[in-house]
């Protein structure tokens, strides 16, 4: 019996089915909890933010993996040519050295992911750990005169690296681990001022969630009357900042502890590596209005320019 046209195209990709099953499998959750707690408890201080990549604007791990992968791939090419064993040995050793910062930065990021992402990430880490073990054994064999067996283990290690890379790609592009979850905000909020509520709707020092063009917005009015507005979903993993805590001019995400400055959305503490989109704010006739900065729309109230208005008063911006 012949298959219906297009039936194959409508079927689920087997690889994606396996990866989806891996996301749903709770069999390793106890290990994930134990390992994640230990990583988060490490006394790394500000080094933790360095490993996350807050200074870089995106995670360090994807950049760090280029050294080991590039070195091992180059070694594999040299292993195909006779008389290149010393250069290949050096590249294998270089890759092992570069694997250390790549692994540490990846582990710190992994501890702050969602459960489904951690499940995939654990297998990703296992594949890469196997690769490091195979390359370590390969280097020992190479240095002790058993280069043939060392090359075999090197190619097995490269295969493990490929499997780990597949899982890493799934983490980044299917599960959105490490990406900026607030990037779309400036592209979906319309230009111009948007009224979000009366001044009395925003108790001083309390985070309040509003919605502008279906985009959640966090509004905080300080005791002195200054009003700040940020995208409400955390750039790290879309945590609800309106459920976080406000202190010292910053808001802390309740999910993973990222801290953002209210005045401009800057990420002063990770794991978030991208700042929160910040809005201009003003008070008009007792109502708070917000807009994206630099939207090109003149500041007006009832057709009158307000560029010179005093911040915190009707017609003036407070940010």
From TrEMBL:
The chain crosses the membrane at residues 90-108, 120-141, 153-173. It comes from Streptomyces werraensis. This is Rieske (2Fe-2S) protein. Residues 303-312 have a biased composition (Low complexity). Gene3D superfamilies: Rieske [2Fe-2S] iron-sulphur domain. Keywords: 2Fe-2S, Iron, Iron-sulfur, Membrane, Metal-binding, Transmembrane, Transmembrane helix. Pfam families: DUF2231 (PF09990), Rieske (PF00355). Residues 193-290 form the Rieske domain. InterPro entries: DUF2231_TM, Rieske_2Fe-2S, Rieske_2Fe-2S_sf. It comes from the Bacteria. Residues 293-319 are annotated as: Disordered.
